[in-house]
Amino acid sequence: PHNANRGFFFAHCGWLLCRKHPDVIEKGRNxxxxxxxxxxxxxxxxxxxxxxxxxxxxxxxxIIPYVLWGESYWNAYFICxxxxxxxxxxxxxxxxxxxxxxxxxxxxxxxxxxxNSVTIIGAIGEGFHNYHHTFPWDYAxxxxxxxxxxxxxxxxxxxxxxxxxxxxxxxxxMIRQRKERTGDVKEKGPYGPYN
Length: 195
What we know:
about 200 residues, mainly alpha
């Protein structure tokens, strides 16, 4: 739904202002979530979604600074609740917008997705988008593993306790070959040439 070919604003948040295309609605109805709905925790989250969002996204982030270190309630609400929520939304949306327009393309120079440093930092690792689109099966979404990638750390933590398994990765040899074949070898990053 957030096609970068329709421009930065559309890819960032404009897609939320448009009606969904009938094909998107139809395809969405055909996605089966029955396996997820067998999980009692998922059913609980689905049933009480609005209440959980209000408590964990706005109420608790405002109450904790107010109670624990004497911040005014409104400062805590607007900074820890509203500002944090807006910041998180925009950092997430940068994956769909900025990471499809600006940055290095060390793995495939023929596609829009790129390695965007601002998005890497702001979305805590989700900005390695050229890698992600080139190797979509790699759970780590980056060649750099856990560096700047909280999502990979989170999945690895659950792998360590047995909750995540069969994690697929890409071999260093395959990465090197792909860089040589389709990567932009003229581009350099903090780790030297990407070739």
